[in-house]
Amino acid sequence: MWEYIEVLRVLATEHTPHLQEAHPIDDYADVKDVPSSTRRRDSRVSRLRILLVLVALMGSRAFAQTAACSAADLYLTFHVHEEADVERITLLTRNISGHDCLLTASYPASFVVQGNAPQIELCQHCANRLPGGEDFEKLPLVLAAGAFAHQTFRYRTSSRSDTPGCVQPGWMSADANADLQHPLIVISKSLLKPICSAVDVVGYRAGPGDVTPLDTATPDGERQPMLKAERSTYYAGEEISLRTDPQPVSTGVAPVLLLYRRTPGGETRIEEALTRKLRMDTFFHEVGSAEGSLEVYSGGKISGADFGEHHFQLLQFDGTTGTGEVHFLRSQPITVLVADAAKIQRIWGETQQGVRVDLTLDKTEFHLGEDIAAHIATQVVDGTEPVYGEPYTRRGAFLSTGAASFHLSIWDADGPLENSDRLANLFAFPSGSSGSTVCPSPLEVNKVLPLDRSLRDFGLLPTRPGTYQISVTWSPYHAPFPDCLMERPPTPERSFVTVTSRPVTIAVVGDTPPTALPQFPEYTAWKAQFRLVDTSFGPLTALLDSATGLEWLRPTLLADPNRTISEQNLTDRMAPGMDLTGWRFATRDEVRSFLAHFTGSPDGRSQDPAVERKLLRLLGGTLFDKPDRQTGWIDSRITVRIAGLTPAPADHSADGSPLTCGNCGPGFWVHAAFIREGVKDGHVSVTIDPDQPWKVTGPVEGSAGVGYFLVRSR
DSSP of 20-53, one letter per residue? Predict the structure, then answer.
C-alpha cells in the first residue's frame, strides 16, 4: 500500500507549483467572469487538493497505532565528515523510549551567520545536487525502540567560479520531528566550516548510515577525557559545576573540546566548551580549581523549567578517520539531576511577624576548596499585611533585587569570615535589559520560595580547614506608601523584621594550603581581657573589653567597598528604632586604650606580626597571601576611622609639633587607626598605630570601604 501512497505523494509534489499559480474562485465577482483556462487549472488544483487530503488520511490510518516521537523519546547526536572540499553533517537520531514511535517529517537546518552576510540557501529537492549524496527521504518513518535514523546536510567548503563567496556560520540548529519541539543546536566554528554553496538537505533515512554513535563503547586503549560534576543534584538558580580531570591531552596545540548537553525535555546542545583554570567569583576574587584540571562552562544558570535529568558528555577533537569522519575522544556520559528546591525538607528558623527563613546544606563535611551549595528558602505564613521581598519601589521588570534582602554569615571561633561582612553578600546584579518599570509583587502566603547560592561564586568559601557555622538572615518589607514610587525615597526604606535561619555547623577538612607568608605562633593573650559577643548584626560581631565594659562593633560591618558611608549616615542610623540604636562613635582616647589592652603595649602601638594578624582577623580585615605582580609586596591592611575632626593650624602637626613643610595651609586633621602588614622577599614589616592622622582642607564625607569604630556599654 505504501508504494501506492508514495506515488501519490510524488505526483502531488510535482504539481505543487500550480497551486501557487491558481486563482481561488472566490476572487471573482461571478463564476461566469472566470476565464476558461483558469477554470481548467482550478479544476486540476481542486483534484490535487483532494488527492493530498487522501494521502494524509491514508497515512494517518496506516500509522494510527504508532504515536509520533516526542522530544523525550529521541537522543540526537552530531557528526561531521570531511570529503575533499565537501563537508557532510549527519544528525543521528536514536529512539530511547522503549517503544516504537513515528518520525513524521524532517526540517532543513538553520545556519546562522553574523552581521550582514547573505543568507544560506537550502536545497531539498534540487536537480543539481552535489555528487555522492544519499537519496531523498521517505516519510513517515516508524522508528523501532533502540533503532537509528539519520538526516544529512552537505555543502562545499571552497568557492568556485560559478558559486558566490563563502559564508562562515556561527551556529546551526535543526529539529528532529514535525512538532518543532526537538531542537538540536551546534555552536562550533572548528566544526562548521565555511559554506561556499547551497546546502543539500536529505531528510530522514533509516539506520545510522556510516557514522559511529557517540554512546558506543570506547575502543580499548583509546584515551578518554574525564568529565565530572561536583555534585549529583542541583537546583534552579545554580550553575552546574563541571570539571575535566585530568586535563585532556592534545599534541602540540590546545585541545578543541565540545560539551554535549541534553535536557530532560530532549533539547540538545553541542557547544565548543569554554574552560578555565581559575575562575572569578561574583566579586572578582580568584577561586582556584584542583591542580591540573579545567573547569568547563555548563551553559549558565539553571531555569525553573529544567527539572529532571540532564546528560553531559565531553568530546575532544582527535583528527579524522580513514573514511573522513571527524573523530572525537569521548568522556563517559554523566547524569545530573535538577530538582525542585521547594520540595526540600525544611527545618525553619523562628517565625517572627509572620515570616521565616531556612538554610539547608547537602552535607556537613566538605573538602577544602569544595563548593558549598546553600539551599535557602523563605515563607510568609501570615498574610494579614502584604509582604515584599524587596523595597516597594519601581524597578526594571528584569532587575529583581530580592536577593539583596538576604545575608549569609559564616564564622569560626574568631568571628565572621572576612567576606561574610559584605552587605547583601548573596546578591549579584543581573545583566542584560532592565525592561519596563514595574512595582514589586507581594509574596504568596504559605508558598515556599527557594534561593540557591554557590558559596564559591560569592567568595564565601572558607580558605582553611576548621569548624564553621553558617546561617542566613532575611529582611523583607511592607509597603509604606499607597503606590510604589518611581524612585527610591531620600530616606531608604527599612525592612519590618529580620529573621534568622537555624545555624548549621560544618567541618572543612584537608591540608592547610601553602602560603608565601612567614608563619608565626598564634597570638592568644588577647583572650585574657577580650571575648567575642553576638550583636544584632550576627554571631561574634563585637569584641567586649572586660576592662572598660565597652563592646567594639566589627568595623567592616559599617563599610561598603562600593560607596562612601559618612559619619552623618551612621549618626542617622543611631536614632531610636534604627539598626545602630544604642551605639556611638568611639573617642580617640578610647581607641588608644582599646589597642593598648589588645597589644599589651602602653600606647597601643606594636610591630609584632602575630599580634597584627590576630587583630586584623578580629576587625574583619583581609590577610592576603599573594604578592603584587608589579611591586612584589604582599600588602594586608585595614584602616578604621575615628569620628570627628581636629583643627589643623598651618604650621603644626596633629600632636602640636611644628611642621617642616612651608606651604601646609590650615584645615583639619582626620584620625584613624592603621593596621598593616607588608611582606617582601621574606621580610615582614608591621604597623599597629592607634591614631594616624592625615590633613584635609574641606569637608570629609568618608571613604569607600573604610569603617568606623563604634562602641556601646555592656
Answer: HHPPPGGGSSSGGGS-HHHHHHHHHHHHHHHHHH
